[in-house]
Write a structure and sequence with these properties.
Layout lengths: L19 H12 L3 E8 L5 E5 L4 E3 L5 H11 L10 E3 L19 E3 H11 L2 H11 L1 H10 L6 E2 L16 E4 H12 L6 H11 L27 E9 L2 E9 L4 E9 L5 H22 L1
Antiparallel strand pairs: 1-2, 1-10, 3-7, 4-5, 6-7, 8-9, 9-10
Helix pairs in contact: 1-8, 2-3, 2-4, 2-5, 2-7, 3-4
Organism: Paramicrobacterium humi
Protein name: Beta-lactamase class A
InterPro entries: Beta-lactam/transpept-like, Beta-lactam_cat, Beta-lactam_class-A
Length: 290
């Protein structure tokens, strides 16, 4: 099932009672010049719990690498595509931003390991090597097969973006991203085995600094969950961008959520206000599922 394709429109639905604090916090950001988009849905019923301009296409930074990972996960279903094939890094892949491979001595890793680096550490070097192997066109084809019209990985990771480069690493609609993660959680994105690979990779994500900071999980060890909570998520951080998409399950319920903010990152107080609002939304999510 694909998300319905509608024309983008300004909308902020009344939230479920348990999401009033997050709704208010995001509203304060919007009144202070931050562009906000969000969607939260109940995982079991698909019921909308919160929607704020969820059709608007937002910059999503590293979240777009989920589309690359989806293509890699699907290819691993093909016995002719070997996840242990070794890929070498090249000078053109180097980028001095996030990730750990750039600090390691090893010049090569298997495809499946690079997927783990990308999901767990937002590793830009691993992303670029994978993308060179897979091809951006194939990622776009996978995105279309998934039924996504307003979400895309636009480019490789770069230290600086020139006039001939895409202005963002990725963009996305929060409605589409929340829907995609709900499909992954149900095992219905491409195939059950490919969906489970995505869950396995994304459950290793070490960045719990935004929405997920409210969940009390160990950033370095939460794959099995604690206190009846399980999470898989992906964050996107860049200058003036903070975004997160994920699935949180607890003893009472499960939710798929997506939220993105775009702002003038000219002072620390603005950035901290954005992060604080995202954590407030995380508190509401935790209360709903637990």
């Amino acid at each position: 099932m694909r998300p319905r394709d509608r024309r983008a429109r300004h909308r902020a639905s009344e939230p479920a009672d348990s999401f009033e604090r997050g709704f208010t916090a995001l509203g304060v950001l919007a009144r202070n010049g931050v562009q906000v988009s969000a969607r939260i849905m109940d995982l079991a019923s698909g019921r909308e719990l919160l929607a704020i301009d969820d059709y608007v296409v937002m910059p999503t930074a590293g979240i777009g690498t989920v589309l690359l990972l989806a293509e890699v996960a699907a290819r691993l279903d093909d016995p002719d595509f070997e996840g242990l094939v070794i890929l070498d890094r090249e000078a053109r892949d180097n980028v001095g931003d996030g990730g750990i491979w750039q600090h390691l001595q090893a010049p090569s890793f298997p495809v499946a390991d690079l997927a783990v680096f990308t999901a767990a550490a937002g590793d830009n070097l691993a992303t670029n090597v994978l993308l060179r192997e897979i091809g951006l066109e194939k990622v776009h084809e996978r995105t279309e097969k998934l039924g996504l019209n307003r979400t895309a990985l636009l480019d490789s990771a770069r230290d600086q973006r020139g006039p001939d480069d895409a202005p963002q690493l990725s963009v996305g609609s929060m409605r589409e991203l929340a829907w995609l993660f709900s499909e992954v959680a149900r095992g219905e994105a491409t195939s059950p085995t490919a969906s489970q690979r995505l869950v396995d990779w994304l459950s290793l994500n070490m960045d719990l600094s935004l929405v997920a900071s409210a969940f009390g999980l160990d950033p370095l060890s939460h794959r099995q969950g604690t206190h009846e909570l399980t999470l898989f998520n992906k964050t996107g951080s860049d200058a003036g961008v903070r975004a997160e998409v994920g699935v949180l399950r607890g003893p009472r319920a499960g939710v798929a959520y997506a939220v993105a903010t775009s702002f003038s990152d000219s002072d620390l107080l603005t950035r901290l206000a954005v992060i604080d609002a995202l954590r407030t939304l995380g508190n509401d999510l935790l209360e709903y599922v637990h």
